[in-house]
Design a protein that fits this description.
With 452 residues, this protein is an alpha/beta fold. It has two domains: 244 residues, Rossmann fold (3-Layer(aba) Sandwich); 184 residues, Glycogen Phosphorylase B (Rossmann fold, 3-Layer(aba) Sandwich). The protein is 44% helix and 14% strand. The termini are close together.
């Protein structure tokens, strides 16, 4: 298929969380005529000046992305965005501080929101101006669509064969238990910064982390005949969880593979404020939010509100037991359903990827074409890209750096051409789509997904 459509550049930061969903969107885009570059965000950013100018799909517009976004604008890229973490957030003022670089609003052409609530919050930012916001849902939701759950059948079968029935615990304590020790935030002194958001947040999250460490062996003893799988967030160290579980042979700590098949294989999820509770909801799997302490300021309300709640170990075991024992208990309540629909666009007849690609296909970016940057702008972008690449390359050799090889491998371990092609074949066979879509390696951990 010959196409004059611009290239879509789709970066992946966390491979186990994002790659499959973004590969699906890449296939939808290629089916529609877009050539796509898909791969490691780190590798794409290092090579941005050598990639074809196109439409870059930013996974967020945080301040930390401002430098890269400015470089791409100088080079003549168009930028569209969503926020991977836009569903699970703090009150708007703190969400804006943590997740929004205000200067980036002027540089993006449109924003794809998870749902009505996300759209309203983004639109309320004082610098959002007349930003074009579309309520589409997110490709990560597509992977939980009933038509696509077959993708995980083999993994679910393998997990069940190995562990049988089990309770799943997902954690998200990156600030307390980061893979890189220097990024862990210590608990302030009792009289230090009381009333200050950051200090109070550190106290709260570290206290909650301590409660979870204590909960792990207690839950292991309460369900000693049931396997318990503990999956830390990809940014976390496994060591502290392994130590907490050391005396319980039925507890297994792992971050192997995508979280989705583990949720599908489980009887019930235990968490606190974790995005995976949203995925469990869409899989019609029950979740219990363990809240030994709680805070209106700091709790992540969406995942907790669509879960059963437990404040003590007694309540936690009581909430879990019916699902382990196959008692008649609904995975979700009617109130949880109403709350969820306010936050996520989901439809049975199409995918979020279809909605996003259709909007891009009809957008002014495509209709009018990309604007060629002036020589001065392009040279400035090229210079800044080369400086950034040199800095990141040096930092990769510094132990403890977020650019280090070891940390990058935790985020994007790598994927082969054969694995990508196999994933596309499975989509072709089961969905009856993407017949003319092919994948080719471009460079390390970057692929071209395009019409044949």
């Amino acid at each position: 298929m010959k196409t004059d459509l611009p290239t879509l550049i789709i970066p992946v930061e966390l491979q186990v969380r994002e790659f499959d969903a973004k590969l699906l969107m890449s296939c939808v885009a290629a089916e529609s005529g877009f050539p796509v570059i898909l791969g490691s965000q780190t590798q794409i950013h290092l090579r941005i000046a050598s990639l074809p100018r196109g439409i870059y799909v930013a996974k967020d517009i945080r301040f930390s992305k401002s430098r890269m976004i400015a470089i791409m604008k100088h080079l003549g890229f168009q930028i569209v965005a969503w926020d991977e973490e836009g569903l699970v957030r703090y009150p708007p003022v703190k969400y804006f501080e943590a997740r929004i670089g205000p200067e980036n609003f002027a540089k993006i052409a449109m924003f794809f929101a998870w749902g009505p609530d996300d759209a309203e919050v983004i639109a309320s930012h004082p610098d959002a101006g007349g930003l074009l916001i579309h309520q589409t849902g997110n490709p990560r939701i597509d992977m939980l669509h009933p038509d696509l759950q077959f993708l995980y059948d083999d993994d679910v079968r393998r997990i069940k064969d190995k562990y049988g029935r089990f309770i799943l615990i997902n954690t998200n304590f990156g600030t307390s238990n980061h893979f890189l020790a220097k990024y862990r935030i210590p608990t302030p002194a009792p009289d230090e910064g009381v009333g200050n958001w950051d200090e109070d947040m550190a106290r709260y999250r570290n206290a909650l982390y301590a409660h979870f460490l204590q909960m792990i062996p207690e839950l292991g003893r309460a369900f000693e005949d049931t396997a318990i799988i503990l999956r830390p967030h990809p940014s976390e160290s496994l060591k502290s969880w392994q130590q907490a579980a050391a005396g319980c042979k039925n507890i297994h700590v792992t971050n192997e593979g995508s979280a989705i098949p583990w949720q599908m294989a489980s009887d019930v999820l235990v968490h606190n404020g974790c995005t995976t509770a949203i995925e469990s909801y869409l899989l019609d799997k029950p979740a219990v939010a363990y809240q030994p302490i709680s805070s209106q300021r700091f709790d992540r309300h969406l995942p907790n509100s669509i879960s059963y709640k437990a404040r003590t170990m007694e309540e936690l075991t009581a909430q879990i037991r019916p699902f382990v024992n196959d008692e008649a208990k609904k995975a979700h309540t009617r109130e949880q359903d109403k709350y969820f629909d306010r936050h996520v666009v989901r439809r049975a007849d199409d995918l979020a990827s279809d909605r996003v690609v259709a909007i891009l296909r009809q957008s002014a970016i495509v209709r009018q074409g990309l604007t060629t940057p002036g020589p001065a702008s392009y040279l400035l972008g090229l210079l800044k890209a080369k400086i950034r690449t040199a800095e990141k390359t040096v930092n990769a050799y510094i132990p403890g750096s977020k650019n280090s090889f070891s940390y990058e491998r935790t985020r994007f371990p790598g994927i082969s051409e054969l694995e990508v092609q196999a994933k596309i074949r499975i989509l072709q066979e089961h969905l009856g789509r993407f017949e003319n879509v092919i994948a080719r390696p471009l460079t390390k951990d970057i692929f071209r997904i395009e019409p044949r």
